[in-house]
Amino acid sequence: MRTTHLRQADLNLLVVFTVLAEERNVTRAGSRLLLSQPAVSRAFQRLRDMFHDDLLIRTPTGYEPTPKGQRLLQELESILPRLDRLMTGIDFDPATEEATFRVAATDHAALMICPMLCRSVVETNSKVSFDFVPLHEGQHDALEKGRLDLLLSADDGTVPTHLAKEVIFEVDFVCVVAKQNKLSRALTLKQYLAAEHVGIDILGGIQTIPERRLAAIGEKRHCQIVVAYHTVAMRCLIGTNLVATVPRRVAELEVNNPALKILKAPPVLVTFKYLMAWHPRMNSDAGHIWLRSIIRDAGRQITIGRD
């Protein structure tokens, strides 16, 4: 991190600049800052010298920002509240602080969580935004390096032990088949293994929970086709004898589709836990605490819906 210029800067000048830009008048700015008019003027001149720009210019209606001053104001709108929060330890306020959270998740997790975030956060005049991306091979390294804020994934044993994690909800697996498929009600393990399957590429080209559960008992299924999304897997079934193993809540999206039917999965597959995982250095970060709290709340709503 380069801090050559910061070492020479007085950060209090940025507060003076922000207040002066808001008030557009030296006297009113001085009143808010509890400074005399000459003190405000001197501080502002130092800031101009520091940035090599006028920053604010006098007009008949008061001070107006230069292009560089406008860019500085936009940056300070998010930087100053964060600095203030770091110094005071107060909670993150999504209504006043700009932040973008990058979350890696399966289409299943995004399907469950994102609609709730849209209703509870996005529609509430929040300054927070979310960037949901697919799971990928470098996701744990991305958490390490700060390129990801949070990971939502099945508790499949792939999350490194040094990462912090928390269960957010439980998942029931079901099997979806075409209506004309001779399989019915509940699949036995023998029937399941004898069938041809549509796999879902969760991570590394495999659907981690089914493959690991079967491998643990010395079995393996055959996937004739592997797709990236659970919803695509279900649409692949129509007119075939293929089987898709999907979370029950995803399968329920097709409950009114006359071309499909939902069956119980073999007991070896039935339930698993879903986690959120993050780097421990973010444990006490106010913004990250807020992020985890809203994901946790969404998980509770999913659990209530399941019950």
Architecture overview:
The structure is a single chain. The chain has helices at residues 12-23, 26-33, 37-51, 67-88, 107-120, 139-144, 189-194, 208-216, 230-235, 248-251, 286-306, and strands spanning 56-59, 62-65, 99-105, 128-133, 150-154, 164-178, 196-200, 222-227, 243-247, 260-264, 271-278. With 307 residues, the protein is an alpha/beta fold. The strands form two sheets. Strands 3, 4, 5, 6, 7, 8, 9, 10 and 11 form a nine-stranded mixed sheet that branches. Strands 1-2 form a two-stranded antiparallel ribbon. Helix 8 links the parallel strand 7 and strand 8 (222-227). The longest helix has 22 residues, at 67-88. It starts with 11 loop residues before the first helix and ends with a helix. 29% of the residues are buried. The mean pLDDT is 88.
